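User: I'm putting together a teaching handout on how multi-component assemblies are represented. Below are the sequence lines for each component of a complex, exactly as they appear in our records. Could you produce the 3D structure of the whole assembly as structure tokens, so the students can see both representations side by side? Please keep the chain order the same as the input.
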Amino acid sequence: MTWKNLKNRLGHAGYVSSDELSMAIYIALQLERPILLEGDAGVGKTQVAKTIAEIEDTELIRLQCYEGLDAAAAIYEWNYQRQLLSIRASADSGVSPDKIENRIFSREFLLERPLLRAIQQERPPVLLIDEIDRADEEFEAFLLEILSDFQITIPELGTIAATSKPIVVLTANGTRDLSDALRRRCIYSHVPFPDRATELAILRMRAPELSPRLAGQIVGFVQSIRKEDLEKKPGIAETLDWAAALAGLGLKDLTEDPVALQASLVALLKTEADQAALPGEVVQRLAGVAG
Amino acid sequence: MATVTKFPTRTSIPERMGDFTRHLRQNGFRVGMQETEMGLQSLEGINLSNPLEVRMALKAVCCADLHAFGRFDDLFNAFWLNQSLMRTDHQQTKVNKPDRRTIDNLSKFMMQHDTGNTGENETPDGDRDGEANSDGEGKLLSTRVFNKNQIDMREYLQSEDRAAAEQAAQRIAAAIRYKRSRRRKADRKGAIIDLRRVIRRSIGTGGEPVQLLRRRRPDRPAHLVAILDVSGSMTIYARVFLAFIRGLIDVDRRADAFLFHTNLMNVSDALRDSNSLRAVNRLSMMAQGFGGGTRIGYCLHQFNTQYASRIIGRRSVVIIMSDGYDTGDSKIVGTELSRLRRKGCKIIWLNPLLGWKHYEPVAASMSAALPYLDKFSPCNTLESLAALEFELEQL
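Assistant: Of course. Below is the structure of the complete assembly, with chains in the same order as your input.
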């Protein structure tokens, strides 16, 4: 498989990927390295992982990061209730403490969380670690062992090596700067907002029912409001939502119905300040020149 | 592309790849053996005769962040395609006296040149409306008038203040802790029982959890961001605050510092420069416009758009040091502060004028800012900064 091949396969699966991104994914797959995707919210970083899982025909294991995420929620945890019950049951039967300890700290009593599950699959799954910058720095340190050696060390049990190396996709959108140690273990690619042609291709693929004229206008409009000073710039997901909203309203042309157009912007602008920043006149003007 | 490189056959590809990583390293990339190796591996699967493919492949391997990502193409072209490009950073900043580099030398140097400097700086500047020109009118209206373009920051960072400033900064950094962590760690008096450890202990007692071990939320240091107003009306306090910021940067590796007057600049890196003479020089270059007008709203806007999304989080505490006198639109100050607040950080405003008798925060910008502040305190000397420790603990 060459990188162009990969790009085509991503395209067939519904993901329009730039050359740079395709090459980065290709190299990550070739070198069996994790890939770190950075970019604004809504540019399709998460979708990359879903699409790779689709073309590789494998399971997608997703770990959504949040502040306070710890090893117990991400890697493994002991099943305390079962352990307690087991100790009580064995204590009455007179089994030696050593044996009890060995038993309750065995795989049987281990609750697998996404990361442990990801390295124990028969067929390499895609492991999506979403919004890694939301997790605290301590959590990054947990990841290092998994990302570089594909193994997990459990103090009571020893080191568990991967049965198959998962395809790891990490995404970040700059909530916090990531450590160099983590960055260096990854292949890096920055996913920008798509240019006009790419976005049009995506829209055509995802919403083939739109007329070419309306699709062109939608993309032109979204491209121009991204240049405005907005708090939350609309991503591709928003473009697609908005296109669906417009199609639902039965609009054939952006300039056709100013009231409906303004109302449909709820799908595109997600904060009060942003909605206030684009009053009716501005929207009309942008809609007039779009497409 | 039919471009031919300078060394088509003389050396092997691995060797050239090693040279390339060195080239990147000299340009500030964090790359090493590992990247050389990965780069070579990545070349195996692509068409080597197409420079575009090679560039994209090496880019994925060698870049680690957005900054590197933006610069890579030029550096690649410079190295492989003979399009010459000068190294853009890591060049020594030009210093006036390159032979004096250590801190000790710096202080001697400052003493020797002290008279010379003030003489230069006391040249009145026609652009200023002379608010600070009135000689001898007490301490607050200093006679020092600053040349807009050449400010020597050395006198603002004299070593005698440093120890006191660092101490104050250290105490303040320690006082502001983030107490809302959801992570927990072992602690004798914690509120929550640590089941994992309880189970382990209970094996010895036949499954009877005799000893209850606990966990609690740990205290963590907050991320401090200092934003200092260095406009004309603040010049007399600038020294105190700059020393404080310097101390803050020294004691807390994660703290960030910004200066603003009509523009905002990030001085964290300059202040962290291990070569202190170069640090001072870098700062001096950045401080163009020092002592001029203020555009608080505009600078906060710059902060929000350029830095806030990256560095401000729920654990951040933003300390703004300004007197609130603004030559820009005061409405923006309110808007921008509310925007900043939504990131979940705490905002502290230290105003040197607040210490004065009968002072009311009537300056338009100041009153616009008030609703968004977690703390509004007086502050004009290092002692008063240090005294803030207890108040900030309450935040």
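A couple of points students might notice: The interface with chain A takes residues 30, 34, 38, 41-42, 44-47, 52-53, 56-57, 59-61, 63-66, 68-69, 181-183, 195-196, 199, 202-204, 206-207, 209, 305, 309-311, 313-314, 339 of chain B (CB under 8 Å). The longest helix of chain B spans residues 103-121.
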